[in-house]
Amino acid sequence: MRKKTKATPPKPPEPxxxxxxxxxxxxxxxxxxxxxxxxxxxxxxxxQKLTPVAIVAExxxxxxxxxECFEWDDSLAAEQHRLWQARQxxxxxxxxxxxHPPQNLFVHVKLQxxxxxxxxxxxxxxxxxxxxAALGESRRKLEAAARSFEDLKNLAATTHKDxxxxxLLSSIIEALATARSVASHLM
Length: 187
Prior knowledge:
- The chain is mainly α.
- Strand 1 (about 95) and strand 2 (about 105) form a beta hairpin.
- It contains 6 helices and 4 strands; from the N terminus they run αααββββααα.
């Protein structure tokens, strides 16, 4: 009698790094393909796990291709870190008005001429320009969430993931599309 063996699922294809571009947050002078290649190399060397600690450790060498992506002046880096901590602090404060669910006390407002600040939520109603800017920021977050779920769906499809997962991801993407459509009608 033959022993039954489970069929092994097909191995997912190796990802191709083709025309690499920066996301909207990328502000580096190093070519995107170089960054992608170095991150891939570090990922491989670290047992297929990528951590900020490993990247910074590699990039600390002045001859490393990613070195110029980081601030190495400790006084400037410390200031940038404190600014990041301040942003985290601002986003951590939530309040509850009457019987409404808790919400952030401050929201990020990015105006067209690059001015950015945080505004108290109740003040937004009195400041239409800032309110519209905050709506725009929320729309961008919806777009980013939709892209993230679309990427996961594409990954699931290429790795022959369970049909149930694909259906759930499709439902989430559809819900985000509805949310984006409704949000586009706000001011």
